Automatic annotation (TrEMBL):
Lineage: Eukaryota, Fungi, Dikarya, Ascomycota, Pezizomycotina
MF-aspect GO terms: ATP binding; ATP hydrolysis activity
Pfam family, one: DUF7025
InterPro entries per UniProt: AAA+_ATPase (IPR003593), AAA_lid_fung (IPR056599), ATPase_AAA_core (IPR003959), DUF7025 (IPR054289), P-loop_NTPase (IPR027417)
Gene3D superfamilies in the cross-refs: P-loop containing nucleotide triphosphate hydrolases
Protein name, as recorded: P-loop containing nucleoside triphosphate hydrolase protein
This protein's record includes keyword rRNA-binding: no
AAA+ ATPase domain mapped to chain residues: 419-546
Keywords of this entry: Hydrolase
Superkingdom: Eukaryota
Length: 758
């Protein structure tokens, strides 16, 4: 009360002195002398209905003496104590907490479960001695117990459109004697600045938050996510109806490109909306005020001064909040209000295709968690592709994103149809299909949004809804979309699988109206439905790696190892690469290592080299470690080769009519006879459904996979289909399952396998 009425008390003393001079202008000694002559004239004076003009000289002198006594207490004890506490003392008593946290001051929250650290005080309450027995103390003495000290605070947040206030209550339980201020759960910001926080870093974090609210931003994030709201509640909500599968539900480590977008995030995850609740005043419990026992006693209800101070603060702040909450005015927090902004943003993680709450600011090593994506000097440089693949892809994407009006001509009969760019990349695994899409995105500085069948679902309605949502997000953010293993949704329709047909139809219709860039990758192009052929703008074939590509990949990886501080016997490894490739590509051997397998070999060999290096020594990468990796890989390939009865991956996929790894690029022809004449290994269609012609499949010659001799214990008799092959045009998997009879255990150089029609 004294703090609230400080100025009024001083003003009232001045009014009393003025009124006394009007009655009689005397010196202080003369006023005191006059008062001593009539000391009892103020005995029945009412302090609740005073008017200086209706008082006698003695009464005014008595009032002035009383008020000056109060003023001496305020100036001699209260003000110095307030000044000491306002400066942020090292220690504090529980009874002084009210002075430690003035209304409107900033506080720092030390609770690890509450991500928001800086708050502003709206109201102080509690911290009073109980005047009646509280419900929590059933027995014993309670009059020496105090209620918790309460701080009602707020911080600023963004709801996708406006800045709003988020309120939260902090409590400090009763304690005895002096306690270190820094040991409290919440402390004044001026105290936190002494080694706990850096104000400049917090201001920079707040400015970054403001920047991220202006529009969507493509960034790279490295750090942990938040799993709690700014005030410590659970961020994600999982229900049976809405499992929240596209939301990061727990704190996790992320190292991925992201799209920061508040507007879309709150639309996609409605429970992330921070709320817009009005402030509710703290109401003291009846045990604190003791109304039942002290109802008729002249004790001032001091909690009303807390409310009055809060009223004055809200009256001053409300116009500013109203401007921040009005869309279109362009108002953003200024000054110390920037400190009240969160250190988190909502973003879409491109790698996991999930919404997540990300921290902004610097990590423990001083690096920005959320940073701009640097454009690589030569994104296509490390990618070794055949022919003109790079220029063809780049020209299509450049044309799509160009502002040239001549490149925006619509050739479709129906507007808004067929305005996207769909590129199919097909071929053997590990030869750069996915990397092509990644390099295209980096070159054009566009986000790459990879999706899989797991992101879309298997139910036609679910697929259509998810696909439309992904297309909408991709177009909003100018993404390049990548659908890996696209054959799952693009497979040939059949007369028996209605659900499969519905999925394919949904995909066909959706592709027609997609306006962005979409890459489709597959190593099973033979199963594609023919309707997709006309919807694909360009199809690029990726054959098995050639020798020059293999050498370049090895050189690139060797250089990366050298740049990483690894000692590499480069010439020896390049010779090993050449020898390995030639052995693997020899007749009767194979397949050659693809790019992914070469990379995996480097990782495994480096792990072996590091394991065998002595502590403190430079790791040396040489041929012997790659030979170990090669031998292990060869054993697995040999096992698969025997499981498939001597068929290589290429032969297996050829038989299944999935793809042709021996495809020879040349003049296109629909004449099967000419095709067979020009390409003896070419694929030919079966003459009638359900029939596959008799053929002889030669067993691999000694040398086998990777140039190693394989055990030739393949039975040569009794091979026949175990069941009807079915119509080879009705399904993506046409590989027959053979059963051996009369296993002789003798070796054979050829396996005559005759297929009979059902």
């Amino acid at each position: 009360m004294f703090v609230y009425f400080d100025k009024k008390i001083r003003s009232r003393i001045s009014d009393l002195e003025t009124a006394r001079r009007r009655l009689k202008d005397l010196g202080e000694d003369e006023y005191d002398a006059a008062y001593t002559l009539d000391p009892d004239s103020d005995e029945h004076y009412s302090y609740y209905s005073w008017n200086p003009l209706n008082r006698t000289l003695s009464q005014l002198t008595a009032l002035i003496h009383d008020c000056r006594c109060l003023l001496r207490f305020m100036d001699g004890f209260l003000q110095p104590e307030l000044a000491r506490i306002a400066g942020g003392p090292d220690t504090v008593r529980f009874s002084d907490l009210w002075f430690l946290f003035p209304t409107g001051s900033l506080i720092y929250c030390k609770d690890r479960n509450i991500p928001q650290k800086i708050w502003r005080v709206v109201q102080r309450a509690g911290g009073r001695r109980y005047l009646s027995r509280p419900s929590g103390i059933e027995t014993g003495e309670y009059r020496t117990t105090f209620s918790p000290f309460v701080l009602e605070c707020y911080h600023l947040d963004y709801d996708g459109r406006n800045y709003i206030q988020i309120y939260h209550q902090f409590q400090i339980p009763d304690f005895d004697g002096l306690q270190a201020v820094k040991s409290l759960s919440v402390i004044p910001f001026v105290v936190a600045e002494r080694g706990l926080v850096n104000k400049d870093d917090l201001l920079a974090c707040g400015e970054a938050f403001i920047n991220y609210t202006t529009s969507w931003h493509h960034r790279h994030y490295s750090g942990r996510t938040y799993s709690r709201t700014t005030y410590g509640g659970k961020l994600s909500r999982i229900t049976t109806d809405d499992p929240g599968k596209n939301v990061s539900q727990y704190a996790e480590q992320i190292d991925s490109e992201v799209i920061v977008d508040f507007s879309h995030a709150i639309k996609e995850v409605p429970w992330w909306y921070p709320g817009d609740a009005e402030y509710v005043y703290y109401q003291a419990e009846i045990e604190e005020t003791g109304a039942n026992e002290w109802e008729y006693e002249p004790i001032d209800p001091d909690n009303k001064w807390d409310s009055r101070l809060t009223d004055e603060f809200l009256e001053k702040e409300t116009p500013k909040w109203r401007e921040l909450g009005t869309k279109g005015k362009g108002k953003v927090p200024q000054g110390d209000d920037v400190l009240l902004l969160p250190d988190r943003v909502f973003a879409f993680v491109l790698r996991s295709r999930r919404w997540a709450c990300l921290q902004i600011g610097k990590d423990d090593e001083g690096r920005e968690r959320l940073r701009e994506i640097e454009k690589p000097e030569a994104p296509w440089g490390d990618l070794k592709l055949p022919g003109d693949h790079k220029s063809l892809v780049q020209s299509l994407i450049d044309s799509h994103f160009s502002q040239d009006k001549y490149r925006k001509i619509e050739f479709d009969l129906i507007n808004s149809k067929g305005n996207g760019v769909i590129i199919l990349l097909h071929g053997v695994p590990g030869v750069g299909k996915t990397s092509t899409a990644e390099c295209a995105a980096k070159t054009n500085r566009k986000p790459l949004l990879p999706i899989t069948c797991g992101d879309l679902g298997l139910n036609p309605e679910e697929v259509e809804s998810n696909l439309q949502n992904i297309f909408r997000l991709a177009q909003s953010w100018d993404c390049i979309l990548l659908l890996d293993e696209a054959d799952v949704f693009l497979a040939q329709r059949t007369v028996t699988d209605i659900n499969r047909n519905a999925l394919v139809s949904v995909f066909l219709r959706s592709l027609e109206y997609y306006k962005g860039v979409l890459f489709l990758t597959t190593n099973r192009v033979g199963v594609f439905d023919e309707a997709f052929k006309s919807r694909i703008h360009m199809s690029l074939y990726y054959p098995p790696l050639e020798e020059w590509q293999t050498k370049e990949i090895w050189k690139t990886l060797i250089q990366k190892a050298v740049n990483g501080g690894i000692q590499v016997e480069a010439n020896d490894l390049e010779d090993f690469a050449t020898t390995t490739y030639r052995n693997q590509s020899a007749p009767g051997s194979g397949p050659v290592w693809n790019g992914r397998q070469i990379r995996n070999a480097f990782q495994s060999a480096l792990a072996l080299a590091a394991f065998h290096a002595n502590s403190g020594e430079v790791v040396t990468l040489n041929r012997k470690y790659f030979q170990k990796v090669f031998d292990i890989s060869n054993k697995f390939s040999t096992y698969i080769w025997q499981v498939r009865q001597g068929l290589s991956d290429a032969e297996w996929n050829k038989m299944a009519m999935v793809r042709r790894d021996d495809f020879i690029d040349g003049p296109a022809s629909l004449d099967s006879a000419n095709t067979m004449a020009s390409n003896p290994t070419g694929q030919f269609p079966p003459p009638i459904p359900g029939f596959m012609p008799a053929l002889n499949v030669a067993a691999p010659q000694p040398g086998g996979f990777f140039g190693q001799k394989q055990p030739q214990n393949i039975p040569s008799v009794g091979y026949h289909p175990t069941q009807t092959l079915g119509n080879p045009m009705n399904g993506p998997w046409l590989g027959p399952f053979y059963q051996a009879a009369a296993m002789s255990g003798t070796s054979a150089q050829s396996m005559p396998m005759t297929f009979h029609p059902p």
